[in-house]
Amino acid sequence: MELGEGAIMPEMHFEEEQPDIPEGQRRPTGVAAPAVIRSGREVISAELALTIYRQMVRTRALEERSIKMSKSGEAYFWIGGPGEEAVNVCLGLQVHKGQGPAYDYLHLHYRNAGVLLAMGMPMIDHVRQLAMRWTDPHSRGRNFVGHYAVKKWNVVPVTSVIEVQFAMAPGTALMQKRHGQKHPEENEGITIVIGGEAGTAEGDFETCLNWSTRPGHELPVLMIVTNNRFGISTDFTTVCAEKCVADRAIPYGIRAETVDGNDPVLAWNAIDRAMRYCRKERKPYLLETLVSRLHGHSSSSGAQRDWKQPDPLQMFEEKLLSCGAMDASTVETLWTEARAEAEAAVAAALREPEPRPEDVYRFTYAPSPVDVVYPQDYTGLPGRLGI
Amino acid sequence: MATMAQAVRLALHYGEEHLGVTDIFGEDVGPPLGGVFTVTQGLKTAWNTPLDERGIIGTAMGIAYAGGRPVCEIQFCDYAFNVLDLLKIAGNQRWASGGEYDMPIVVMTPTGAGIRGSIYHSHSFDSWATRLPGWKIVMPSNPLDAYGLMLAAIIDPNPVLYLLPKALLRVRGERLIPGEPDDPEQLSRMIDAPIGDRTHWSPQWPPVQEYIVPIGRAELVREGQDATIISYGRHLPICVQVVDELTRQEGIRCDVIDLRSLFPYDWDLISQSVVKTGRVLIVNEDTEVTNFAEHLLRRIIEEHFYDLLVRPRALMGKHVPGIGMNQVYERNSVPQAEDVQAAIRALLADPA
């Protein structure tokens, strides 16, 4: 597949279940399809735009089905990222995906389903966590939905604790920088850390800015702030005087940018620029993306659709239709397929086994050659002798 | 004989050379100081961090995610309280990710009173530490164990919190570390940084060997029929001193157990000793409400109720907000040798 000029997309579509869209469905008959999609001065190829659109649809369909699960009793709790699909998909498609310091590390938060779907995670792995199954590869049914952990792709465990990922990011970046210095052919791995704007009030955000700019020890960390203006119910502008989160980079001399994260053309190019800088310069970058929050904070606040917020997917859909990059039947087909894919994932996951009582202790400890009480794993209090 | 600070330093050097330690870091851990207690002088992977405990623990986790083997330090455990949530997260990474990620980090931090450290250099952390599931918690009472426990902490692929009894850091041991020179003056000339300008100084490391104290194995340091005294860290040598005096003066003989690992603790050794003596005293200096000793008492009562001759007891620090600077405060809130002696006498005097 042809990508936007200079775009980096290793191993795209890994494990995807859907076939590519037949060429004939992409444009109205008799109208010349555009080669590129524009937003102001920014451009992506029409091919890439369709790929992004399709992944955004899949993400939205999965999130809407997930919300339904939380309301139907098939799950207890939903949190996710409807409204952040443009940023998430554009990020996921540009990640250097793999294991170890030669590849990108991802310190995500809990609104990043689009990142993982774009990287190639099958929908069912998301649903398995939401449905609390033993087959959940991220947490064995232990964690909230969207709390991914994928070692083969350097996705470190997502935690509900806000902003702690920003304190951890310098560590993976340090190892990547060191690795690249020893192995110049593997010197492009970067650390990507994401959080919301509310979390920037935590000291951990400042930790990341500070630790990634120690003189002589600058680190390749791409910090992405998804600014939806709300921390649960609290309007950011009522608790913080700063006008622009990206300005937090200024005292550290970090390159920064604020971008409309509801526009995939702008988001793609901003992420591309930021990644190129981190990969080549081995220095940090702060990217603030202005995004929507379409279903509130979580199911705890009802997860009802907020129709006042702009919808990045709807806007992109209209843009691609109006310029003739795709037609209405393509839209319908993609939505139908994505909803069917989500439905099938839910049906399959709900048939899978749940954890058993004896699984409570499992995976507490890694096997240790120097621990005489727990050489394999935790087994309950020390030396119970069957009591 | 090495001091405990020297022993930990030698262990970290061994870790760098033979066990894959990639980073030793924290506030003032790197040159020129090499740690406020000299524990990290001269180590080749030691570096200084910003004054930011959350960054220290977070970065250690990141290094571990990416395949490194970090040992980091919180300068005093009094400053670990703002990282409790990160310690919890480090402890649950493997469990929460269903075995996807291990967390092989060592966090060391000086703990306890005894150096006239006033309110914020005298806290204990042992009871807080044992409330961190997923971690292993060790605390040596002598230099040789300090060396062996540090090697075990580094080798263990799980998070290990290594509590340094700060009052014992400058105390010399009675047993040589394998490979350590016989003459302590010679050791000092080899590995202690000079006072003043250290620009051109580098250590001459003795060829120390592998010596591992397994995690979860206590040591029976005194043996007797009359009572079981359980302690660790700073109060272990105090308990030994008191028991030795009682043995010399009155022929009283007690089991004295040095836990060394707080979690996992050596329940088998505790259990056997309780069955033998029926009289139990646990001694530590952490504050007395929700103290780790209370957990051990709970198990002793639940599992050995009918083996006990008298009520078991614990001697702990007073439940006060801090250790005051005037020594009157410390002497009257942290168990002293005379308090230990009185507690053992009371334990033995209690009619069965």
Order of helices and strands of chain A: EEHHEHHHEHEEEEHEHH
For the largest interface in this structure, which chains are involved and how many residues does each contribute?
A-B, 58 and 58 residues
CATH class of the largest domain in chain B: Alpha Beta
Lateral arrangement of strands in the main beta sheet of chain B:
2-1-3-4-6-5-10
Oligomer: heterodimer
Helix content of chain A: 25-40%
Average pLDDT of chain A works out at: 92
Q: What is the CATH-assigned architecture of the largest domain in chain B?
A: 3-Layer(aba) Sandwich
Give a written overview of the molecule:
The complex is a heterodimer of chains A (387) and B (352). Chain A is α/β, with parallel strands linked by helices and 387 residues long. Chain A has helices spanning 46-72, 85-92, 113-119, 123-130, 164-182, 203-211, 264-281, 312-322, 328-350, and strands at residues 36-39, 42-45, 105-107, 191-196, 221-227, 230-231, 234-235, 255-260, 285-290. Chain A has 9 helices and 9 strands. In chain A, the strands form 3 sheets. Chain A has a 5-stranded parallel sheet with strand order 3-4-5-9-8, with helices on both faces. In chain A, strands 1-2 form a two-stranded antiparallel sheet. The longest helix of chain A has 27 residues, at 46-72. With 352 residues, chain B is an alpha/beta fold. In chain B, helix 7 links the parallel strand 8 (227-231) and strand 9. In chain B, the strands form 2 sheets. Chain B has a 7-stranded mixed sheet with strand order 2-1-3-4-6-5-10, sandwiched between helices. The mean pLDDT of chain B is 97. Chain B has 11 helices and 12 strands.
